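New to this. Please check this record:
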Amino acid sequence: MTTISQTAPPTNLEPRNSNPIPPRLRYLTKFICIPLMALATAFFGCISLVCGLWDRSGRQQHYVARAWAVTMLRLALSPVEIVGADKLNICQVAVYASNHLSYMDTPVLFAKLPFQFRILAKQALWKIPFVGWYLKRSGQVPIDSHSPRSAVAGLLRGVKVLKAGTPLFLFPEGARSPDGTMHSPASGCAFMAIRAGVPLIPLALIGTYELLPIHVYALRPRLLKIIVGDALPTEGLTTKDADALTARLYQAISTMYLQHSDR
């Protein structure tokens, strides 16, 4: 179906070979920074769950998530720069989509996107203690891609959130990149934007893969960047255009990444 099909990105990024982390830096980040990040996650997670006892809108939990994200970035010793921040104020409600390189992508986005938003995430996360409780009480949107019917139901929940006036964010690749390259995206983000009649806004994350690649447990602190692209309008489009719009999204993300990365 169009809503869950995979669209090969028009531009792929070459894998990056990271140099070994210096021993002192590895020791500092692995045995001090990362354990403190785990403690911070547990601490702010508990606060968020308490807020969820009375706040079903998710607004207070979002503020807690932002405080958690800022703390995580400070512990990671990695500042974040936004390029094109003025474009975030053009559209009040939109679907935001970016490449997915690292566990640190989520803290970067929660810390720096200056508005309330909800995320679309795998339904399996809702079954994890604490994590699932937070996701449910804070109004995040689950999606189950095991069957087309379940996937479409999740996308329609996302459309409902957008029509209610709340921006939505997701990683169209569905999982972190194992090698720093862009992988085949699903067209669900385009489907939701078209159905809700809102723009699709591409974001390119830079530096998070080098900071913390998948399956690596030490940090390489650096300057991180969020590149905000021009909004892709959906006026006049139907869900049959979702694949084409997804291709445009990935072309935009690829171009921004190549223009602003240090490689």
Notes: Helices lie at 23-51, 59-75, 105-112, 131-137, 148-163, 188-196, 208-211, 242-260.
